[in-house]
What we know:
Elements: H1 2-32, E1 39-44, E2 47-53, H2 56-59, H3 66-78, E3 86-92, H4 96-104, E4 109-114, E5 139-142, H5 146-166
Parallel strand pairs: 3-4, 4-5
Antiparallel strand pairs: 1-2, 1-3
Amino acid sequence: MADLAKKIEKREYSLHDKYMKEAIKQAKKAEALEEVPIGCVIVYEGKIIARAYNRRNTDKNTLAHAELAAIKKASKKLGDWRLEGCSLYVTLEPCQMCAGAIVQARVSEVIMASMNPKAGCGGSILNLLEMEQFNHQVKVTRGIMEKECSQMLTNFFKKLREKKKRKPE
């Protein structure tokens, strides 16, 4: 029985890796635009139904977070604002705005890579995703491909600081 549980857990983590790699591809699109490299995919019934990446600076829009764009696309694809049965994969722990939208959209599960100790609301500063007081709680898995995603963010901000140093005032 324990062997079966281990096999199921291993298969679940390999699926998580598969979809997180797709979220990382989205994050790299953001990085190519000199945006903070955050990517997101939403999976329903084993298929990716939405892909998005951070575009705040590009779109000059506070709301242009990867999660919100993916939620919008997934809702359009399913023809419903309720995303029950959907799993959202994101490279960085959601902020308060995105965590609230995830709860409101009734997303069933969130799988995140890196935690965000300065703005995260999926367990770091707050945990809006699993609050018992809300009418919907989200199943949360943390740390999937965390090293890769953390390194991508660290490298991005290092390059940004170097670029600012070189820029004449």
